[in-house]
């Protein structure tokens, strides 16, 4: 560009200055044409008239209206452009003429349907309005040839069907793929079927649940075509020597997507490689859609290829932070260290000398975004403080860094790396509340009655803090337990001073724990749930490499910190909604549907426990009572089932729903009327939005104007939906990456001889052809089949050893019986069995763990007895090492670059990532 502006700045200018609001009564086509002309005129002026700009349109009225408005901006038709600007392109003109003729012929036919089995567009529209057809989104099962169309609440002409419609068989889907918005026609009630209820994909019997509304797809309203990762299969037979492109049926990584036909001249070289493709069309005469290649990820099975596959399949497109974004960051280096601005210190409440502030985080944590303080005041009061990194001081709304953070919406944590939402200078330095340095914070400080903990006063505001101690959970718990522990910040002090400061720190931790216990007890009385998940924590070394995947060991200090954060989030939610009743970003957790608690209720009944699910309070109390003194895993498994039954918590704008509907804003799991996210702005964009709302509310309270214009309810609701979508993608990617590392690890072991492949498992659900188990040592859940495809069943010997024999399976609600010539064996809910872990590999899809029962008794190995991470201590590190060795053998560079190791991001951008960034930006207002 002549003015030296980078492409990103030019694009931002285009979006900022060229947006045209749609006028009342203006058609969509006219509005789009006017918007394109505004962009063309801006770009001509942006280039200072050096280059002419040509706008091409088929709208003759637009040509007449805009052709003479701006000198240097030409508005012409496509035909004039081809004839007058490029007269030598005869072939192009001829092609254009033939395309126009074909389109006219197609239009003259009057058939506005894509496929013969779909109904006419006008009939489809009328049918939806009349209730003959139901509109909804296709959700295809991963394991069976059936789909469920989740309707949008519209009702059918004969019955109120606001739930789901089953579509059985590929033929009845009529070329609809997962995620498409479709119209379905119900079949007669006599043809309704139930969903297939098998254990999982693979061998075993199948049964059907009760009949549900069943139909067929009669039209596709909106395609959900996106980027798909496919694998080129091996070529069969003699390979063609022709020069033309070969059309190959590639196999998508996602089992729910049909094969995609791709034309390429590199088909032979791409055998066994994973490639990103995009669907272009689906001809009515073809069983498969057509697509084109976007980029090659690498050979299937390699670590980096599989990681990139997980990202692409979840719609996560991350490129390194641009130079323009990094130029917005403050300077912080050993030569020029960042310091607190005296003007900022004067404008904020300075807590550096008056308060003992400390943080408690996982070991090795670098993005420390929260810190705590507690102290006694005169008059029988306590002061509790929660201090959160003031990210919005450094990231101004509308800046390039803010736009990037909004697009990412969250920090993405994978098993071996993370992709930060903010540049490292903020996430790991200036916004991280590190020990011994001054930092800006947004603080919430309560004055509590020392005896009842009733809130006497609360203060919100910007502060300057200096954390005295940067503790990790295990160290803080050791201090609370009175154990000998080394605090790094006290290492260089004399014995007397060290003991005095250690006593002060321990007293603060004990006081904080007592406060947290009382806060938790108050929420428990309201019905707060204590749920359980399969959480595996990644341990990092000093180089940010993961050294182990370790199941989280629950400590009381975890609950202490969490309770303080929940308390802060609740009070901030109340504050911003009071100030902005229709423009506050809150978080709700809807009550789950009662029918999803079936497995939990049945499993608990097998142990003699009654689970009541009418309210969160009754559910919490019944879970507390469901304790087996002989096996602590029983209660843990029941809480895991309750967690699986929960609805997903979502962000929303308070103006999007009637304020009278309190249930809409209620957080079911935490038993709080109002809740939001305020305490992690380094890794969540929602928290940054809440920080800005809180700052605006504080300014209004002081009689000042807010720093900037607040987002409208519509804009805030759109942002909430975007953040919800990105959070779902981040959660799915994190789970898939953990499974990927587990599979890569076990793939290198011999399941028949390696003791690490044998573990203890607990049965938590009975199915038709087997059981579902949980392996606590590895945090793995999965199916164990008791009947295979050959009709053989598991037979148990006198010593408990299992083998396959001819026989039968009989299922009961709380147990399953395997009968064979050697006798019968019973597997009951919550029985411990010994399983062998192996990997079920696929050349096209993701690998998965395979669990096989080898003994119907509890595993007696040392790892199972101690439940310690001995078998996984080097899991991720071992997988990374093996992947690097494989790359070295292939002659490719194996070690990560400094940028990749330090920032966990690609060293150099590519055209694909750049275009993806442009595409996402173009979708923003």
UniProtKB/TrEMBL annotation:
InterPro entries: Dis3_CSD2, NA-bd_OB-fold, RNase_II/R, RNase_II/R_CS, RNR_Ribonuclease, Rrp44_CSD1, RRP44_S1. GO terms for cellular component: cytoplasmic exosome (RNase complex). Residues 888-907 are annotated as: Disordered. It catalyses: Exonucleolytic cleavage in the 3'- to 5'-direction to yield nucleoside 5'-phosphates. Gene3D superfamilies: 2.40.50.690, 2.40.50.700, 5'-nuclease (3.40.50.1010), Nucleic acid-binding proteins (2.40.50.140). GO terms for molecular function: exoribonuclease II activity; RNA binding. It is found in: Cytoplasm. It is an enzyme of class 3 (hydrolase). Transmembrane segments: none annotated. Keywords: Cytoplasm, Exonuclease, Exosome, Hydrolase, Magnesium, Nuclease, RNA-binding. Its cofactor is Mg(2+). GO terms for biological process: mRNA catabolic process; rRNA catabolic process. Residues 888-904 have a biased composition (Basic and acidic residues). Its EC number is 3.1.13.1. Residues 348-700 form the RNB domain. The keyword Magnesium applies. Belongs to the RNR ribonuclease family. This is DIS3-like exonuclease 1.
